[in-house]
Amino acid sequence: MVKPFTRIFDYSDCESDEYIEMMDIVGHCGDGYEWIVEEYGRKMINVPIAVPDFQIEEKFKINDGTMGGNFWYLCSTPEAVLEAGDAIINAIMEVEGATAPFEICSAASKPETNFPEIGPTTNHVYCPSLKESLGDESKVPEGVNYIPEVVINAISEDSMNKAIKAGIDAALEFEGVVKISAGNFNGKLGDKNINLLDILK
């Protein structure tokens, strides 16, 4: 039997009675060919895929966490985007209880949009390609040609802060990373406001 290439486990150690059944939202990606196995003392859904195979725990407990932390690393070169990006994600993944679910995002979003039916859209004032046409409205600094975003979710505010600091410290090691910033949505996207300068002290 071919060994699974990827395994996803429920990280939570909480006592919550609430959980998410993963079969309906992930398991059935196997189109009916998925099956349940018991491994590592857990019930796992084995989803057959072309890079065999994918396993995910059958149930995930629900507990509190902190999501949507972000920072931007403003770059002058595409090499900085990629090289610093790899280092940032590796640094974040070393922090217990934190993850970067989208890895490197190629566009920061904003809550206001001309097309609400599709959800958040690109934060146009931070798009380098629009700098000339937007004129004074643009917020892209001189010498910056790329503004990738990193989004972080964590099990606690402490883990979030450690992950943000680890990611920023990693980014600053690379030539071509010009500045660090973050999205500021004036309280429109959650009840927490984490200041980068406080984290980096």
Helix/sheet category = alpha+beta
Proportion of helical residues = 10-25%
The average pLDDT score comes to 88
Assembly type: single chain
Low-confidence stretches: none
Q: Hey, roughly how much beta strand do the residues contain?
A: 25-35%
How do the helices and strands follow one another from N- to C-terminus? EEHEEEEEHEEEEHEHEH
Distance between the termini: 52 Å
Q: How many strand units? A: 13
Largest sheet: 5 strands, antiparallel
Please state the CA-atom Rg, rounded to the nearest Å.
20 Å
Q: What would the principal axes of the Cα set say about the shape?
A: elongated
| Number of separate helices | 5
Spell out the key features of this protein:
201 residues, alpha+beta, 13 strands, elongated
Short description:
The chain has 201 residues and is α+β, with helices and mostly antiparallel strands. It has helices spanning 22-25, 78-93, 131-134, 157-171, 196-200, and strands spanning 6-8, 19-21, 35-39, 42-47, 54-57, 59-61, 66-75, 98-99, 104-105, 109-110, 121-122, 149-154, 177-181.
Would you kindly provide a written description of the structure presented here, covering whatever features stand out?
- By secondary structure, the chain is α+β, with helices and mostly antiparallel strands.
- It has helices at residues 22-25, 78-93, 131-134, 157-171, 196-200, and strands spanning 6-8, 19-21, 35-39, 42-47, 54-57, 59-61, 66-75, 98-99, 104-105, 109-110, 121-122, 149-154, 177-181.
- Strand 3 (35-39) and strand 4 form a beta hairpin.
- Helix 2 (78-93) packs antiparallel against helix 4 (157-171).
- The protein is elongated.
- It starts with 5 loop residues before the first strand and ends with a helix.
- The mean pLDDT is 88.
